[in-house]
Specification:
Shape of chain B: globular
Oligomer: heterodimer
Number of strands of chain A: 2
Order of helices and strands of chain B: HHHHEHEHEEHEHH
Helix content of chain A: 25-40%
Low-confidence stretches of chain A: none
Mean pLDDT of chain B: 86
Number of domains of chain A: 1
Distance between the termini of chain A: 23 Å
Number of helices of chain B: 9
Largest interface: A-B, 33 and 45 residues
CATH topology of chain B: Rossmann fold
Chain lengths: ~50, ~210
């Protein structure tokens, strides 16, 4: 996502993991954990120029 | 929300149309039957879990809260100001649009555009904003890969658990860039994976929709 945002032209790309996010179903949660799946908050800015 | 559609990669699944249909069906179900059980947390419990302010959830129409299906809270970093124009990409039942409209509205006459491909969600969101007494929100029929707004139309783009559903994530982000004015900003919450997903996961419609 970082790369995609930078490639699109965004600057000041920042990310932070969303606290409190979880999958409800055990099997989905286990698969998500195995693949390092997380919810992330991204912020970025379109350059002024 | 899905596991399979990591926003960290542009996946190409051979079952794209099947998967898109399953995702639409799932979110249609959340719109029509919010009291149902789904693979993901939704409604007020999900919003509370993700740190939505209790006063927001008290003041918003119950139907908007009940069909909430986000994965985070884009408002914590959006820094919305009165008078700003906001795009809520994948606006769902409208809770995030309503919260944004409260922040940009008032004397500054800010505006919120919600874009969603699901007509049930758009209708529900429009009814919810009317119930909330908001006149500065407009919901548009459109895909996130082709946002139905002109260049430089908005100051801020928010989105909550939606971009991971697209097969064309680079295209989505270039569209977000296009509709933002110079100096415009984004506050987007979404699902990402640290590792490439197996093809069997990428091809599983049920995982995309869970």
């Amino acid at each position: 996502m970082f790369t995609f945002l930078e490639d699109a032209g965004f600057k000041r790309v920042r990310s932070t993991i969303v606290p409190g996010f979880a999958f409800r179903k055990d099997s989905t949660r286990d698969a998500a954990e195995a693949y390092g799946v997380k919810a992330v908050l991204f912020t970025a800015q379109r350059p002024v120029q | 929300m899905i596991v399979a559609g990591s926003v960290s990669q542009d996946v190409e699944a051979p079952l794209e149309s099947v998967i898109k249909g399953e995702v639409l069906r799932m979110y249609q179900e959340v719109a029509q039957n919010p009291q149902g059980e789904f693979h993901f947390y939704h409604g007020r419990p999900a919003a509370e879990m993700l740190g939505y302010a209790p006063e927001w959830l008290e003041c918003a129409p119950r139907a908007a809260v009940a069909s909430f299906a986000g994965v985070g809270n884009p408002h914590v970093r959006s820094r919305l100001q009165p008078g700003e124009v906001v795009l809520d990409l994948g606006s769902g039942a409208g809770l995030d649009s309503i919260i944004a409209a409260w922040q940009v509205g008032g004397a500054g006459a800010g505006k919120v555009y919600g874009v969603d491909v699901n007509s049930d969600m758009r209708n529900k969101a429009a009814a919810n904003t009317t119930a909330a007494g908001l006149a500065n929100v407009q919901f548009l029929d459109g895909r996130m890969e082709d946002i139905p707004l002109p260049d430089h139309a908005v100051d801020v783009v928010i989105s909550n658990g939606v971009i991971n559903l697209s097969f064309r994530k680079r295209r989505v982000l270039s569209e977000v860039f296009r509709v933002l004015g110079p100096g415009g900003r984004i506050s987007i919450t979404d699902i990402v994976s640290a590792k490439p997903l197996s093809q069997s996961i990428v091809n599983d419609p049920k995982l995309w929709a869970s």
